[in-house]
Amino acid sequence: MGNKTPAICFSEPSVIADRQLALLQRHLETLQQTSPWYCELNIDRQEVRSLDDLRYLPLTSKDDLAGNNDAFRAVSPEQVVDICQTSGTTGEPVTIWQTENDLQRLALNEYLAFSATGISRRDKVLIGAALDRGFMAGLAYFFGLRRIGATSIRVGSGQPALVAEAIEKQQPNVLVGFPSLFLGLARRMQGGGLEPASCGVDKLVCIGEPVRNPDLTLSPLGAALAEAWDADIFGTYASTEMATSFTDCPSGCGGHLLPELIAVEIVDEQGAPLPAGTTGEVVVTPFGIEGTPLLRYRTGDIAALHTDPCSCGRRTPRLGPVIGRKSQMLKVRGTTLFPAAIGNVLSGIPGVVNHYLEVEQQFDLSDQLRVVVGTSDADLTAEYLASEIAGKTRVRPEVVLASPEDILQKTVRPDRRKPITFFDYRNSRQESETP
Ligand SMILES: [Zn+2]
Known about the structure:
By secondary structure, the chain is α/β, with parallel strands linked by helices. The protein has helices spanning 13-34, 36-40, 62-67, 100-116, 137-148, 160-170, 179-191, 220-229, 339-347, 382-393, 404-411, and strands spanning 80-85, 95-99, 124-128, 151-154, 174-177, 203-206, 232-239, 244-248, 255-256, 262-267, 279-286, 297-306, 318-319, 324-325, 330-332, 335-337, 352-363, 366-375, 398-402, 422-424. The strands form four sheets. Strands 3, 4, 5, 6, 7, 8, 9, 10, 11, 12, 13 and 14 form a twelve-stranded mixed β-sheet that branches. It has a four-stranded mixed β-sheet with strand order 19-18-17-20, sandwiched between helices.
C-alpha cells in the first residue's frame, strides 16, 4: 500500500505545509500569467508567506465561475483536449477546459487515490460511472486504473441490469460507483436468488454519496453495503471543478488530502476559516491545473477536516463525509439539518425502498418539511417513520407513504445522473440531487 504513496504524505504536518506553500506560490504566479479572471483581481502574492495566508486571498464562488465561465479559461482553444461539464447539481452547467497535462494530472490523482485503497494491478475493477455526457468521473477512474495497471470494466451507471450482467460475467473484485446503485443491485440480485456476497467483490469505492457518519463510522448505507457484498467500503469525494479526490485509506477515517495536488480549507458562512474538526463549507485550491485553474473555490459542500494522525501512517488531513450542500440546509424550529441526514435514517429502516423530500417556507426562519417514503411493506406506518427520524435528527417531519413506483416516477429523470430526491419550494429554489 505504502510504496505508491508519495513520501510527503508521511511527513510531519509542518513539512507538508511548507511544500503546499511552495505549490501555492507557484499557483498564484500561474494564475496571474494565464487566467483572465484572476489577472483582474490583482493578487499580491508577496503577501503570502505561510499556508495560513491563504485566508487573505479572494474566494471564488460557483456563481463567479458560472456567470463568467469564459474568463476562467487560462489556455488557448488549441491547447484544450477535453471539455468537461459539471453535472449541474445546483445552478447552470459549467464548462471546465482540460489540457493534455490536466488529463495526466487527473490520471495521477486517481492513481494515488485508488492506490490508497489498496487497488493494484492484480485487481479487476468495474467502473459504474459515466464516461460520456462531459462527465469527468468515469474518465478519471479509467485513467487512474490504467496507470495502476488494473483491469477496467467500463459499464457506466445508467443501466443496473448491465451492471449485474457484467458482475456475473466478468467477476470484478472491486466496484466503483454510486453506493445507492450498488445497494439497489444487491437487493435485486438477492430477489433473483443470487447472493452478492458470494460474487467475489472485496472492495467498494463509493462516489457521490457519503458512506460514513460525521463520526467516521459507516453510515446505515455504508453498513448495508458492507453486509450485502461482504466487502470493505471506501468513500471518495471529488468534483469536476477541483479535479482531485479525497479517498479513504483502509483505516476508513475520512478521505486523505493529496498534498501535491490540492489545498483545502473549511470556512464558515462569512468565508472565515474554521479550526480542525469543525463542520463548515469545503473550499479548495487545486494545484497544477492549466485549463481552468481555480483559487479558493467554494464547493458548497459541508464537511469537517480531521488533522489528528491516521493509523495508516499518513500525516495528511482527512476530509470527513459531506453531510450536505450549503444551499440545501434546512432550518426547522431552531434545528439545522441537511436532507441527507433524513435519507441516512431512512436507508437504515428495513422496508423503505426510496423517498423524496419537499420543503416549503412555513414562516420566517422555519421550514416545513414533508418526507414521502416509498414502501410495499404494509406494516410500516408514517407515525413510526416520523418518530424514527425525530429520534435521530431532532426534527419531526410530516411523513407520507407512497408506492416505490410513485417515488421513481417523481425522482428519476433521464437527463440526470442521480435521482432527484429534494424538492425545494423555498424562495422558488429548484429541486436537486442530495449528495
Ligand atoms: Zn489513513
